[in-house]
Amino acid sequence: MTAAILGWVLDAFDFFVVVFLFDTLAERFQVSKASVVYTLTLTLAMRPLGAFFFGAMADRFGRKRPLIFCVLYFSCCTVLTGLAPGFLAFVIFRALYGIGMGGYWGVGASYALEISPRRFRGVLSGMIQAGYPLGYLLAAVAMQTLAPRFGWRSVFFVGAPVAVLVATLASFAPESAAWQQHRPASMARIFDSLVEHRGMFLYALLMMTVLLCLSHGSQDLYPDFLRSIPGIAEKAVFGMKALYGIPILYNIGAMVAAIFFGHLSQKFGRRKAVVLALLVALLAIPPWAFGTSLGVLAAGSYLMQTGVQGAFGVIPAHLNELSPDVVRSLFPGVVYQLGTLLSSPAVAVEFRLRDRFGYPWALTIFEAAVIILMIVIFWFGPEARDRSFLREAESRSAPAGEGRA
User: Fold this and answer.
1) Total structural domains in the chain?
2) pTM for the full predicted model
């Protein structure tokens, strides 16, 4: 569990440092700010390749080795990003990093949840997903502490020791009993299983595409939005500039919410917990998008990420429970990351809406539409809460730590 969480924290950290460096990178590489923003889209677009490759490897050969290779791979790509001599090299390394970023979630989530007791699956799902806002929070901290002292390149180097730690922890963990039981005989069997369950695949893909539009639409441009509000950039939160202090605050809310709603889903169901979280996000839009004072913006962004990441806290358990046994790494990973690809224009769309309507209305139009659509998708969608990942005979005889409720 620790390896899965830390790896996802590192993954998010390496992604979000770029969000805080739009202006710095544009100036350093002598390109437009829009060009730097579009590198986020490229990174997101490369993630399905990683999910497909690493997910297939994990379903065919076990969870451990693909997880270890994946975290070391994307960490190396991040280090190379910090060493990039020009914008072209920066773009290439961010694209390569996207492959590793896409590979980690599916393998890490399936590995952790397969060896977890079912009664803890909801809260552990929230803990895994809480790693993402924690990575965002740590990126904001690094921009306030490391970057001013050691330069912007330093934030691309600090995660390397964490990658080594994740690989070490995973190397000592046991292989998944569920994988050993359902191990496919060949790669052909893996692909056949995807075709057999194409209906569920398409539903899950739609669900994740819209949900990822919500997530990236609420996060990626928000520091830039805060910068556009007169007087906000000069104010302080937690002794730090508001541009970093507010993201730290709302990511604290995101982490708490992911665990809370994950736990809630264990009692009341995955779909109901997600819908409740989405309603919180919908109610948070006015202060989040139209606030002009530091207090209102801080409260609005806190509530927004409570709703957004509260919904996401349910996703690792929900997707793994909906996944076919043979492809439990590949199915959720590809669905998640292909959804990322289909949602990757979200940031660019919001950027264009900003040019036409201004930031507050651009954020409102985009997020309100996505939240309402998301509520409909979840309300009428399937659920498989608490299903066993082991065959029935072994599930009844398994000890608590191996899948017995």
Assistant:
1) 1
2) 0.83
